[in-house]
């Protein structure tokens, strides 16, 4: 029996939630989530549908749509899975990026994803991707070519013994580095440092993460290429381990934004309220859940 719960909180006071995990979606038998946006201007709320996501009974996302304020589709993704729950096909439409493609995923006899084929809106093959793995079966790289086999891009990843990604380097068809990042972890597998580099191997952005005794992220600091703090975010949680506030500060340690989350009786995120540095509510979203 389908059951839809509509949140009746004032649209001006209700704000969004981050995407729920697959485990939460399946456990709570959620069929779809519709998100409504409320932009506050001159103390008036202009509400509109922001997004819609639909799931199968196993918690897999099968349709995801982002809307423009006028109701037109901004982005849309659909995904198809096989009997083993493996993704076998996805479509992606993005009006802003003029993108309209389809990917079909390839698997070996051990049901491990080995790459994909990408087609444009007319059904013409435009890219082929092939993954590489280490002895433990962890993905360590990807080679992307055109239909004739000509190299377009290559990605190489270095992993630690636990399978955590230590570095990722992306090169173009000429072998030039287009993107590089390195990551460090603590003994629990939590990401503690991430650095993004430019083509000359110089640091462009460095992010440091801190956690509490329960492995919840409590602080995230972003530094520029000179090592100067540009942004700091502090996270707080309730007794259930759900994030309830985000406090965002600039490099001068001045509050620029505060985000407040609320949850329903099933411990699912319900609203997200965003306030400016003066404590004024600026925008918000609310979730409407449909259940199997």
Biggest sheet layout: 20 strands, antiparallel, barrel
Query: Measured on Cα atoms, how large is the radius of gyration?
Result: 22 Å
- Report, as a whole number of angstroms, the end-to-end distance: 6 Å
Number of beta strands: 21
What is the averaged pLDDT score? 90
* Total number of helices: 1
Q: Which oligomeric state applies?
A: single chain
Summed up, the domain count is 1
Run of helices and strands: EHEEEEEEEEEEEEEEEEEEEE
Report low-confidence residues grouped into runs of 5 or more: 1-18
The coarse overall form would be: globular
Helix content: under 10%
Structural class: mainly beta
Strand residue content: over 45%
Secondary structure layout:
Elements: E1 3-5, H1 22-27, E2 30-41, E3 44-55, E4 61-67, E5 73-81, E6 87-94, E7 99-107, E8 113-119, E9 125-133, E10 139-145, E11 151-159, E12 165-172, E13 177-185, E14 191-197, E15 203-211, E16 217-223, E17 229-237, E18 243-250, E19 255-263, E20 269-276, E21 281-291
Antiparallel strand pairs: 1-21, 2-3, 2-21, 3-4, 4-5, 5-6, 6-7, 7-8, 8-9, 9-10, 10-11, 11-12, 12-13, 13-14, 14-15, 15-16, 16-17, 17-18, 18-19, 19-20, 20-21
